[in-house]
Amino acid sequence: MSSQHIVLIGFAGTGKSTVGKQLASRLGCASTDVDAEIVKREGEEIASIFANRGESAFRAAETEALEAVLSSRETLVVATGGGAVLAPVNRELILRSGFVVALKADPERLIERVSQDPDRPLLQGNVRERTYKLLEERKHAYDFAHLTIDTTSLAVDEVVERIAQAIQR
């Protein structure tokens, strides 16, 4: 397994996908989104996988997609799903494969960012209640990152700049 990827972890709405694309562009490498990889591999939208096969089937597909993406020989900026870090095997994969950046944000900002998105099955229903509950459950889930950035009041290019500087050190 190579040790050259930059892996973005964090709760839904912290900016992993958006930051990932811009960071890859800045670094001159490719970016990939693990959730998009799952959809491609499974031939089914994430919300549909949750609805039809349940969260455990989704998590199994997530680990397979993560392994496939992280085994790439080319340097990638990898945006993971918010819950990808919950499985110990995924945390090990992520840590082994490169520089890990956790993005976090104020709960109210997260709610604002995700509340209009139907593609977030774990946040359906009362978004505020679900967000606070999941944040509490995952309080320390992202603590293993090499770098943590609070994106609450930062522009995407500011987040990208901080990560690029950290990588160059």
Automatic annotation (TrEMBL):
<keyword id="KW-0067">ATP-binding</keyword>
<feature type="binding site">
    <location>
        <position position="82"/>
    </location>
    <ligand>
        <name>substrate</name>
    </ligand>
</feature>
<keyword id="KW-0418">Kinase</keyword>
<keyword id="KW-0963">Cytoplasm</keyword>
<dbReference type="Pfam" id="PF01202">
    <property type="entry name" value="SKI"/>
</dbReference>
<keyword id="KW-0460">Magnesium</keyword>
<dbReference type="InterPro" id="IPR023000">
    <property type="entry name" value="Shikimate_kinase_CS"/>
</dbReference>
<keyword id="KW-0808">Transferase</keyword>
<dbReference type="InterPro" id="IPR031322">
    <property type="entry name" value="Shikimate/glucono_kinase"/>
</dbReference>
<comment type="pathway">
    <text>Metabolic intermediate biosynthesis; chorismate biosynthesis; chorismate from D-erythrose 4-phosphate and phosphoenolpyruvate: step 5/7.</text>
</comment>
<dbReference type="InterPro" id="IPR027417">
    <property type="entry name" value="P-loop_NTPase"/>
</dbReference>
<dbReference type="InterPro" id="IPR000623">
    <property type="entry name" value="Shikimate_kinase/TSH1"/>
</dbReference>
<dbReference type="GO" id="GO:0009073">
    <property type="term" value="P:aromatic amino acid family biosynthetic process"/>
</dbReference>
<dbReference type="GO" id="GO:0005829">
    <property type="term" value="C:cytosol"/>
</dbReference>
<dbReference type="GO" id="GO:0005524">
    <property type="term" value="F:ATP binding"/>
</dbReference>
<comment type="function">
    <text>Catalyzes the specific phosphorylation of the 3-hydroxyl group of shikimic acid using ATP as a cosubstrate.</text>
</comment>
<dbReference type="GO" id="GO:0000287">
    <property type="term" value="F:magnesium ion binding"/>
</dbReference>
<keyword id="KW-0479">Metal-binding</keyword>
<feature type="binding site">
    <location>
        <position position="59"/>
    </location>
    <ligand>
        <name>substrate</name>
    </ligand>
</feature>
<comment type="subunit">
    <text>Monomer.</text>
</comment>
<keyword id="KW-0057">Aromatic amino acid biosynthesis</keyword>
<feature type="binding site">
    <location>
        <begin position="13"/>
        <end position="18"/>
    </location>
    <ligand>
        <name>ATP</name>
    </ligand>
</feature>
<keyword id="KW-0547">Nucleotide-binding</keyword>
<dbReference type="GO" id="GO:0004765">
    <property type="term" value="F:shikimate kinase activity"/>
</dbReference>
<protein>
    <recommendedName>
        <fullName>Shikimate kinase</fullName>
        <ecNumber>2.7.1.71</ecNumber>
    </recommendedName>
</protein>
<feature type="binding site">
    <location>
        <position position="120"/>
    </location>
    <ligand>
        <name>ATP</name>
    </ligand>
</feature>
<keyword id="KW-0028">Amino-acid biosynthesis</keyword>
<feature type="binding site">
    <location>
        <position position="35"/>
    </location>
    <ligand>
        <name>substrate</name>
    </ligand>
</feature>
<dbReference type="GO" id="GO:0009423">
    <property type="term" value="P:chorismate biosynthetic process"/>
</dbReference>
<dbReference type="GO" id="GO:0008652">
    <property type="term" value="P:amino acid biosynthetic process"/>
</dbReference>
<feature type="binding site">
    <location>
        <position position="138"/>
    </location>
    <ligand>
        <name>substrate</name>
    </ligand>
</feature>
<feature type="binding site">
    <location>
        <position position="17"/>
    </location>
    <ligand>
        <name>Mg(2+)</name>
    </ligand>
</feature>
<comment type="similarity">
    <text>Belongs to the shikimate kinase family.</text>
</comment>
